Amino acid sequence: MCTVISLHNVSKSYQQHQSILQAVHSVSLNIDKGEIHGVIGASGAGKSTLLRLMNVLETPDQGIVVVNNQTLTTLSNRKLREARRSIGMIFQHFNLVANKTVFANVAVPLELAGYSKKAKGDRVKECLEFVGLRDKAHQYPAQLSGGQKQRVAIARALANRPAVLLCDEPTSALDPQTTAGILDVLQTVNKELGVTIVIVSHEMDVVKSICDKVTVMESGEILETVSIESQAYIIPKNDPKWFLQQLTEKERNSNA
Amino acid sequence: MPEIILKYQAEIWQSIGETFVMVGISIFAALLVGLPIGTLLYLCRKGQMLENRALYSSLNIFVNIVRSFPFLLLVVFLIPFTRFIVGTAIGTMAATVPLSIMAIAYYSRLVEQALLEVPRGIIESAVSMGASVPEIIFKFLFVEARSSLLLGLTTSTISFISYSTVMGIVGGGGVGDFAIRYGYQRFETELMIYMIIIMIFFVQMIQYTGTTIAKKLDKR
Ligand SMILES: Nc1ncnc2c1ncn2[C@@H]1O[C@H](COP(=O)(O)OP(=O)(O)O)[C@@H](O)[C@H]1O
Ligand SMILES: [Mg+2]
């Protein structure tokens, strides 16, 4: 197995008022090609910072970041921008350009990479097909549901055929039904396209359902990394009777 | 058509023309210089892409000083500069110099504010895609802020019309100056009221056009 992402003794701190906050403290981590790697931990544990260090969205105070055999921490700005094209990223709040259509949003990374108009059009359609939104190409993000927006974001992140996809709480703004759909898409991205996925989440169910390995973080440090057997994401039923049943069951348990 | 308007027809058309020249050139200056300055103000702020304290402070001070000048004093204060640029300090073209300086300062602040409204996450996604600073500006910032940028320009234009009314002081002419000289000073109250109506009409038109287009551009 070869390593695609490797962090060596990486640290990141922030100046907060008078004190210095150590968001990530001397972390080393290797992520293998083809893996779905989860990062879980309490809010403020440093998960997002760790993820953002992987594409050097945050410059580490010290340590080395290597992705796709390139040492990102020593690259020139220009080379770093090129390297980032093969590292896709998606976010909790999707971060689509609201004034661009779905098509135009997915086209942006291709324009940055210098695709011709024809090649761009073909690739956008391919990506939208992949996430099942080809018919929404000419809509604006505001006309889509949360799950559909995240699918567009995934299509956008995949447009340049990245080797790695970084996901920061990709399902945390979604309801459980929609979450299951997005996790399905991510799994397909991993299995069919061979993309290595790092997924940060505070939801145990999410991490358990698709990850091969999970890193647990606490106060900026790695507590442990464990291999797991992924288990199906359990979709709670979305009907009032089921809600009632759940509520009264809880009550019975606590009465007992 | 009221008799008084027919009587002064030529002068009225000329004054409207002068207002158009003064306001038109100000809008042009606002776009050509104010838009880049506003964008730089945004980019050089603390925590932004091109964080640069010295440049931010200089631009910020320029904008604040120009905007805090009583406009008539700014006109007088700029006379030497105006003479240097257009060769004379008197006339419609000379009047466009202080108006343009004010327009630049006014609009650059509105541009900065419009860009600050763009969600940070969008910039972040742009950086993660490997976009360069110019690409972020043109493919993300300006696209997302376009309706605010246009509304800001609309507001600015209406202010320029108002500022242009005092340009009689340096012989700039325009609708406002005509209303004061003929309507007020020659006691042609009826004429003055017609001129005010013309101004109101212009302002309404501009506001309506700006708001309508901005609404069309806004898909958020
Ligand atoms: N840009 C920043 N400036 C200052 N402090 C930050 C910044 N980003 C994160 N932090 C702090 O670093 C810590 C870790 O944040 P984060 O990585 O976002 O945690 P998590 O994603 O696990 O909730 C938090 O205490 C947070 O307040
Ligand atoms: Mg986080």
From TrEMBL, chain B:
Transmembrane segment boundaries: 20-43, 55-79, 85-107, 149-171, 191-210
Membrane-topology descriptor: Multi-pass membrane protein
GO BP terms, alphabetized: D-methionine transmembrane transport
GO cellular component entries: plasma membrane
InterPro entries: AA_ABC_Transporter_Permease, MetI-like, MetI-like_sf
Keywords noted in UniProt: ATP-binding, Cell membrane, Membrane, Nucleotide-binding, Transmembrane, Transmembrane helix, Transport
GO-annotated molecular function: ATP binding
Record Pfam families: BPD_transp_1 (PF00528)
Location in the cell: Cell membrane
Domain ABC transmembrane type-1 stretches: 16-207
The family this protein is said to belong to: Belongs to the binding-protein-dependent transport system permease family. CysTW subfamily.
Protein name: Methionine ABC transporter ATP-binding protein
Organism, scientific name: Peribacillus loiseleuriae
Taxonomy of the source species: Bacteria, Bacillati, Bacillota, Bacilli, Bacillales
